[in-house]
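call fold(seq) -> tokens
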Amino acid sequence: MKKWLCAALGLLMFGLLAAGCGNSGPKKIVVGLDDNFPPMGFRDENNEIVGFDIDMAKEAAKRAGLEVEFKPIDWSSKEAELNGKRVDVLWNGLTITEKRKENIAFTKPYMENHQIIIVNANSPIKTKADLAGQVVGTQDGSSSVEALEKEEAVLKSFKELKKYGDYVAALMDLKAGRLGAVVVDEVVGRYYIAKKPGEYTVLNDNFGTEEYGVGLRKDDNALLDKLQKAMDDMKKDGTSGKISQKWFGAEIVK
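ret:
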């Protein structure tokens, strides 16, 4: 009797373990983001979270066999949210810096963000040097202002640096002829000008470059490898380029 009972219990335990392994299902990852950063991640007119990074994350997760949930967070506390395990991934135009690398593991850069110069399509301005004597617009408090301040000689050559509450107002003044050029984050600038084809030109010159990567916890090596492979494959087969064209009107993925 005891032998039979032990055998029965053994079979029961084996069955439970096998069932547990077979029903584990795909792992879900929670992506932390700022939901007010168009076109990377923002809410549309239906209050749905959409954007370039949203499309990229959905596709990468699908290829990696992962479910994905998007969770808006206080972006200034993003590292605490990640390392406190309230989110698993930071994917929202996150700039790779040496300081952040101390606390976060990054994928390879998937995009370069430049501080681009936008002019009207018929403008005689072709280079950074041509901005001398011009009224140049940008957004007050933006990284564009910091980038301009690093090139003091060029900045001093302007007739005026005019700062706006947002880039849209600056681009409207550019179209109206009240500005000679607008300096803007590439991801933001290309998103807006893609809606007005033929009206603007982006110069080859720019005011600096930064790289975007996906941020993960330092010990999430397996997840990092899965996402990196998916992103590499998306680049190779042109999927990330198509997503870029959708949001920016140009292929600017790295």
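The chain has a mean pLDDT of 89.
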